[in-house]
Amino acid sequence: MTGSFKYGVSTYSYVDDYGSVMTLEDAFDHIADTGATGIEILGEGQVEGYPEPSTAWLDKWFGLLDRHKLEPTNMCSWVDMRLTLKHNLTIAEGAAELARDLRLAHRLGFKFLRPKFGVLSHDLIPDTNWEGYVERNLDLAHELGVVICPEIHAPTPIKHEVVDGYINLIERTGTSNFGLMIDTGIFQDRPLTHWGSHQINEEARKHMPFLNGIAVNPEEFLDIARYVVFIQAKFHDIDENLEDQNIPWVPVISAIKRSGYSGYLSSEYEGLRSPWRSIDQVRRQQVLLRKLEREYDESVRA
Fold first, then answer.
1. Which tens digits make up the pLDDT trace of 126-152?
2. Catalytically active residues, by annotation
3. pTM, 2 dp
4. How would you classify the pairing of strands 194-195 and 198-199?
5. How many CB atoms lie within 10 A of CB 67?
6. Distances (CA, A) of 277 to 27, 106, 190, 239, 282
7. Closest Cα to residue 218, out of 207, 228, 205, 208?
8. What is the 3-state secondary structure (H, E, C) of 160-191?
9. Strands 180-183 and 6-10, sheet pairing
């Protein structure tokens, strides 16, 4: 039998609540209360004093980790290729941004760093300098014990030049400090009704067809699984019967289990942003994912 998943939560799930009616301490409370063991954060949005947090903030951070028995999993960061309108970032400038965030991630205890590179197209083809940013930091990432993992996110499917480019870098360099992060929103096979705070109308669907789901076949995960180091368990709406309205979790969990992946599934809620709704939705997903993993394991044993 394959190994068990580890379960975490991204604080991005609580956007709109976080920073208004929810503190960092509250987020820790809610995550730990689900039974999750990992916490994922947005570096720029949730590290006070980013990129140089104070000693007092660091003491609070490590105190909360210890109190709630949570493990730092992934820190999300951005390489802002249009930081200035005068020019796109040079390779040296972009590499410096990535190095800055690698050091911060390590300082906070994270093992994974998801850099969001600037994109050049609607299907999220990254800035052409992305490879230079990464290659200049592979030695640093190795020294710090952090894996750089860009995200495969709708509307980019698995069978795409973006994914091929990332895999080519891994194969060419032989690095173990660069891998793929999969956002499970790529498996969405039914239309969304809301995207964050926005109700989706027909005009939005026309201009952003990925809102209807790009419906990647979960079996395609098996083709790239050996390169996957982290999974963001994206979802939008789970009803009171624990039925997800957009993501086909049974075949998704089956494919991930059969691949041998035993890392984190990190809940990332991106549904309707009504006050406090995210708390209940994350709880529902954590119960659902554990239930499906348990049922899969029982079916294998039978």
1. 999 999 999 999 999 999 999 999 999
2. 153
3. 0.96
4. antiparallel
5. 12
6. 13, 32, 21, 12, 9
7. 228
8. CHHHHHHHHHHHHHCCCCECEEEEHHHHCCCC
9. unpaired
